[in-house]
Every structure is written in C-alpha cells, then in structure tokens.
Amino acid sequence: MSLSVELLAFTPEPDKVVAASARLCYSDVSACSLKEGMDERKSEKLLEHLLKSGHMSPFEHVAFTFAMDGLSRVCTHQLVRHRLASYSQQSQRYVLMGNPQVVVPPSIAEDAALRERYMEMVQKSFDTYKLLVESGVPKEDARYILPHSWETRIVVTMNARELHHFFGLRLCKRAQWEIREVARRMLALAREKAPMIFNMAGPACVVSGKCKEATSCGNPYTTVEEVLADVLDF
Amino acid sequence: MSLSVELLAFTPEPDKVVAASARLCYSDVSACSLKEGMDERKSEKLLEHLLKSGHMSPFEHVAFTFAMDGLSRVCTHQLVRHRLASYSQQSQRYVLMGNPQVVVPPSIAEDAALRERYMEMVQKSFDTYKLLVESGVPKEDARYILPHSWETRIVVTMNARELHHFFGLRLCKRAQWEIREVARRMLALAREKAPMIFNMAGPACVVSGKCKEATSCGNPYTTVEEVLADVLDF
Amino acid sequence: MSLSVELLAFTPEPDKVVAASARLCYSDVSACSLKEGMDERKSEKLLEHLLKSGHMSPFEHVAFTFAMDGLSRVCTHQLVRHRLASYSQQSQRYVLMGNPQVVVPPSIAEDAALRERYMEMVQKSFDTYKLLVESGVPKEDARYILPHSWETRIVVTMNARELHHFFGLRLCKRAQWEIREVARRMLALAREKAPMIFNMAGPACVVSGKCKEATSCGNPYTTVEEVLADVLDF
Amino acid sequence: MSLSVELLAFTPEPDKVVAASARLCYSDVSACSLKEGMDERKSEKLLEHLLKSGHMSPFEHVAFTFAMDGLSRVCTHQLVRHRLASYSQQSQRYVLMGNPQVVVPPSIAEDAALRERYMEMVQKSFDTYKLLVESGVPKEDARYILPHSWETRIVVTMNARELHHFFGLRLCKRAQWEIREVARRMLALAREKAPMIFNMAGPACVVSGKCKEATSCGNPYTTVEEVLADVLDF
C-alpha cells in the first residue's frame, strides 16, 4: 500500500455557508434568509476580509472529512495531537495485522543498502508478531513489537478554521515530511471544493509573508501553488 | 418575528458517513473504500450498536448547521454554554436595534394584564434605547437597557455526537421551555436527514428509560415521537 | 455592588511548571525529575523563547480561577463565548433577584440626565420583575424583563495559553470597555503570580508590535505596563 | 526504566474550590466570598449531590498535572486521544534514543522463551536505529524502525471532570492493561489530594453499579478500593 488521502464527505457549498454566517454578525438580515442574495463576488470579498483580519469563527461552520490509508503510526501520533478534530482509526487491538506494510522514509529508501536492512528488520518484526500471536499472546500485546513505521488507516474530520491552523503548522518545511505530504493532499482536496476559503492557506511564509519559526528553514514558500506543487513520493 | 429554526447546511448522507467511519475501527477494510459495500441494513445495525454501547466518537464526523431567528438572549446565553459547537451571532454592538421584538414567556402571555404590563415595559425600554442612541451614546452601550427578552439571530453548528448530548440535556422537561422548543425543532430537522443517527435521541427517560435528574419531573417521555409532538408556541 | 475580580485558585509555581513541561519535550530528562535543576534564569530564557516562537502548548499545564462579581450579562455573554475555559455562573432561573443592581456604561454615567433616565428604567424593570414574580410567574420567566445591564456573578477558569489568547483579543482597545476592564484585572492578578508567563501578554500591539485588526484604533499600547495602568472605573 | 507516574502540580484545596464554585450557581452569595463559610461537611454533601446527579461542570475548575516515565508509545497514542487535556511529550524527532528501553506486555514477560525472543528483536531494532543514525539518517526517520513498545515520557494535565470521564473509560477491565495501570496510579494520586472529588470515581460498575459495555467483562469491580488495589506490575 502507499499513502492515499481521499475526501469522504464535506459540507456542501462551503464558501457560501461561511460567507452567509459571517454576514449575519454584522448586518440586519434574518438568519433563515441568509443564503439568499449572496452573490459570488460579495462572498469572495467578505471571506478575504475575514482571513486578513483573523476573524476565523465563521469558518467553523463547514467541515471536511478525509479517509486515509497507508500512513505510519508515527504520523497518526502527530496527527491526533490536533484536538479540535475528530478521528476514527483502525484498531491494532482488534484487527489482526496481515503482511508487513510500512512507510519507508525517503532518507532510507534512497540508499539501497539501508533500505534493505530496514525492510529486513520489518520482516523480522512481523515474524515475531506472528509467532507471538500463534503462541497465544493477544493481538493487542503482540503489536508492541511492530515498528512505528507500520501502516494504519484513519478517518479525520476538521472544520475549516482548524484546517487553516493545521495547514499553518504542518505545511511548514520544518514539519516532518510524512505529515507535510498528508497535509498537502488535504489542502489540495479541500481547496478544490472551497476555493475561496482555502485561497490563502498554508504556512506563515505564504499566508502572512513572514516566518514565525524560531529557526527559519531559510527557503520559504511564496505562494499556495508552490506548496501544492511540492509533492513528496514515498 | 417569532421563533424560526432552519437547517442551513449538513454533511450529506450522514447515516452512511458515521457507519463507514465506525466500520474502519473494527475491520480490515481500507479507509478509501469505506462507503462501498455498506448496505442500509448493516448500517442500521451498526449505528444501533454504537448508540447502545455509548461508542459515540464516529458520530463526530457529521455536522448540522442551524439558522435561528426570534430567540431571546436568555436562550442564546444558555445555548452558547455548549462549548463543542460553533456560533455566529448577530452583534448588538454593530447592528442598530429597530422596533421592539421580544420573546414573551407563555406564563406571561397567557394572562392579558401581565402581558400588557410586560409589553409596556418593553416599549419603554426601547424608547430609552432610542433616546440614548440619539443622544450620542454608542449602540453597544445603549443596549444595556434592553431587556433579556430581546430577540437575536444565530447560526449554530454541532456534530451529531454533541447534538445527542445537547438533546439529552435540553429536551428534558426540566430544561427551560425556550431552549427546549429550540432543541425540539433541531431534532426534528436533523432526524429527517439522519433517521438512523437520531432514532434514539432525547432526554435520558427516552434514551435509557431512566431519569438521571436529582429531582425528576415526575412525568417522563417514553418515545422520541412524543418528544417531537410536544410543540410549544410562543 | 461594583465590579470585583479576585483570584480564587491557581496552579502553584506556574512559571516553573510551564518551563519544566517544555524542557521535557526537547531534552533527555525524566519527567519525574523535571522540576529539579531548573534554575530561575534558565526558566526565564525558556519561557521567553516559547512565547516568541509561538510554541504555546506547555502553557496549558497551569490554570487560573477567577471569582467575579458585579459584571453585566452583556459582559458574561461575551465572556462565555471563549470555549477553552470553564464557567460556573449564578443562575437567574433559581436565584431570586433582590434590589436592582446594574452596570452603568460610562458613556451614560457621565451625563446626569441620561443616567437618571437609565436608572429610572432599571427601577421600573425591576418593579415589573417583582410584580410578575408576586403574580405567580416563575423567576426564570420574570427575568425576561430585566435589562442586559443586570449584574451577575461568575467563576472562570482558563489555562495560561487560553489566557494569552483571551488577553490578545479582549485587551485590544476595540474590545468593549467592560470586558476590557475584566481582562485587565485578570492579567494584573495572574501576572503577580506568574511574572515570566505573563511578561509579554496583551493585545497584538504590545506582544508583536503590530496591530492585526482590520481597522486599527490608531492609538496602540506600547507596553504591558501601559495596558495595566489603563484602569476604567464603572 | 519502569513505569513511573507522579503528581507534578495540582490546584490547591481542590475539594473546596469545586464546592465553592457549585455553590455560586444556586445561592445568593458573592463570588469573591465563596470560600468563606464552607464547612467540610457541607462541601462533602454538595460534591456527592453533584456527582450523583451528573452536574459535572464545577469539577472543571481544578486540574491535576502528572509526570510520567516508562510508558510505551502504544499507551501514549491511546492517551492523547483524550482531547480535553494538555500534553507535553518527549520528542523522538529531536532527542536521540539511548539504550533500548521498552515496555514488555505481561502476556509476553511471563513466558521465558517469548520474552527472550521479544527482547532480542528489541535489541536488533535498536541496532538498526543506531546504524541508520550513524549512516546519516535523521533521528526523526531512523525511529521508524523502533518498536511500538519503546518507552516515552509525557506530562499530562486534566481537570477533575475529564479525569472522571477518563477513569470511567480507562479503569474498565476491558481497557488495555497498560493504560489501566497508568489510570490507576493517576486516581491514587489525585484521590489523596481530593478525597471528596474522587470518592466515587472509576468504571461504570463502581460509579453506577451497572456496566455500560456492549460485552461485559463478567467480573465487575464493586468499590473504588478494589480498583486501587488491582495493581499491575510490568
């Protein structure tokens, strides 16, 4: 298996829902007629204003749900640290692990000898897992011997405000490559459905033109397009 | 104006999305093919199992957004105490209040003399508000004289897990009548779109057959249908 | 009554707890010996680094609990919108309101005629409340006629990360005067107990030297001391 | 190393703070004089009432911070799924892993042959980790080969409401043994400081006398003391 990120569900007409909710706050319009009379141009102006001034709460009204396969438990351990989100992850307590399926870091994959050594260890770990299970050790205990690289599957829901925050942290070049690639694909998928909301998304270098890290990467992105084009295969 | 609650947006196919996410946790299926091969009967069984055993996390993957007009600030002050939700409310700082529009509690409305006295006070409060604004007092300060009953408008998003929690508290007969009626309408709207998810929703008397309040109302509901039929006009 | 904000409880040695937690992340030290060997100078350097680089999660390990009297329900409606916090508020459903006790906005208080008109309305509203209660209307319904200015009491707990966020929004000169004064007192109390944590707290103009508002107030603060000296009596 | 859980910090006088906050909601007392006149007997009655009727919000005003060493990343991956909590975890991205230090599940430890095989694999994984690091692979990538059992260190803060929820789930006999033992130690430490708050804490079998699991363990606890005595060494 290799990394796969798909959009399982999302709030329909996301740009319109956010613009309508924001409009309620500042004008004398009834909530129930909000979506009427919002033309596209006005919505775009309004969303741009919200993003620039940091008034992010209307972005919470729309959410995106991603289905992900083939990411490591290193990556999901980082991912689930984002608490304003919802997760359903495949359980290693209940599901028997089949053949070895692991993520190989590019820094290892690119060196044939290291890669061989790595894969050999993965196979040995898996053989031990199988032996333990066959000896009567519960699956939930046998998995303690599996490596962090072991692949997992997860469904993730975040609203658009949290996605902006998540993209800010995880698309930064100082984030780890695996979660960066996951974030990149999430942004590509979400932006297709909500171009206005995610027009200005990504790390601080892109959004505000100014790095916030203590130690900068020295090679900042300049546009969202550049972020999206920075594909990492593994 | 009178109370109006409408569904502004919701995650499409909510029953299916929750069932698919739950299925990932316990079976060896890829996340990206989750929605395939889920028949309706299996989904229903699965959701019923989740609700009965209290495994509520998959219900977080779907959300409902309600647009509300004509509720009092008494009610929204209670509403916004639910923190696992998102709100956009019409601002009394920026929007000039027009004619007096207030909620009249049924216990007052049903007595002609009390109602008259109440409405008279509302009018006087509003006259003072107008006078203050005309005297140069900022809108945000003048509103300090408006009564709690003053109507407001709000957009509310909750996911299905939080909705279950909210319905449990706010459809109880010991909750205040105004937020109960708001909750009743929310349940009616959500249940229409997600019949499996909200098949067993409402106060503890309905969901578990057992009151959890320290002092019971003495007259519990027995079915969701009964909850939904208990309309309050105001 | 007039506004009163006191510190009801807080995590002891807050500066030290935050510094120790942060230190765990980046160095090979056991969690259980964290507080040993942290000298004050090192802690200060570390906290300064965290604040500057925006690595705020260690600040969540310490919390402050404030007891507040004499603030209006306008103010608490704004306050409870901060969802990463805990609240216990005096209930108008259960507690009978005694004599009229209201917040008077400075813009009204400073004009004798307006103030008189305002207080007259407050008294009339309260007379109506009393009449309603004496006529058998439940307290929870009678209060619909009380003005927004009515005083309330609340206990509020926030951790230091959320406090930083709260101070950023609510000490801005564009925030409303009442919640600004509440926030100012909270900062003064918290800073006394945790000088390193709250050394650089307040609106963007103070923290980053750059306004983030769409429309600036035109008269930014320059230091925390200036923020703390900007007392508002009401 | 073996599991170590210590109390790093906590809100002083936790029983009193919760009781005082709860008292504010329902009686005509000023927030700033809350702690006066609360005798121990009244506090105990009040907390018991809150716990029995499920009015848990006052329990949010007090928090406990635990420093933990020697737990596996299997366990912390489960732990950090609790989102109403704060975490600072030792980073495998930045800290070089020294000698092999792993958790050995009891089901493996009790069988000498399995244990030997397990430890052998741990050593080989670590040798590969070292080789990778020495070959120039970044620490953050080399760790992909380390097993899930690898020990980590974490600081965890939860408020008393979340702790009740956490104990309800994680002290159940159907929870995994490692997080159960972590939870047992947390309860023992917290209960010593807040005997009234944690007098009735633990899984549903203890708190409500009735299992909520779809499949019961068949051997429920009956008292908190029994839960606390159920020590697991590993």
From TrEMBL, chains A, B, C, D:
Cofactor annotation remark: Binds 4 FAD per tetramer. Each FAD binding site is formed by three monomers.
UniProt GO BP: dTMP biosynthetic process; dTTP biosynthetic process; methylation
Transmembrane parts of this sequence: none
Binding, dUMP: Q78, L79, V80, R81, Q89, Q90, S91, Q92, R93, R143, R170
Xref: CDD domains: ThyX
Annotated binding of FAD, by residue: S57, R81, H82, R83, Q89, N159, A160, R161, H165
Catalytic activity from the UniProt record: dUMP + (6R)-5,10-methylene-5,6,7,8-tetrahydrofolate + NADPH + H(+) = dTMP + (6S)-5,6,7,8-tetrahydrofolate + NADP(+)
Keyword terms, alphabetized: FAD, Flavoprotein, Methyltransferase, NADP, Nucleotide biosynthesis, Transferase
Pfam families: Thy1
Tree of life domain: Bacteria
Catalytic center residues: R170 (involved in ionization of n3 of dump, leading to its activation)
Entry's EC annotation: 2.1.1.148
Reported cofactor(s): FAD
Pathway: Pyrimidine metabolism; dTTP biosynthesis
EC class name: transferase
Coiled coil: none
MF GO annotations: flavin adenine dinucleotide binding; NADPH binding; thymidylate synthase (FAD) activity; thymidylate synthase activity
Entries under InterPro entries matching the protein: Thymidylate_synthase_ThyX (IPR003669), Thymidylate_synthase_ThyX_sf (IPR036098)
Functional description taken from the UniProt entry: Catalyzes the reductive methylation of 2'-deoxyuridine-5'-monophosphate (dUMP) to 2'-deoxythymidine-5'-monophosphate (dTMP) while utilizing 5,10-methylenetetrahydrofolate (mTHF) as the methyl donor, and NADPH and FADH(2) as the reductant.
Family: Belongs to the thymidylate synthase ThyX family.
PANTHER family: FLAVIN-DEPENDENT THYMIDYLATE SYNTHASE
Record's subunit section: Homotetramer.
Protein name stated in the entry: Flavin-dependent thymidylate synthase
Organism for this UniProt entry: Thermovirga lienii (strain ATCC BAA-1197 / DSM 17291 / Cas60314)
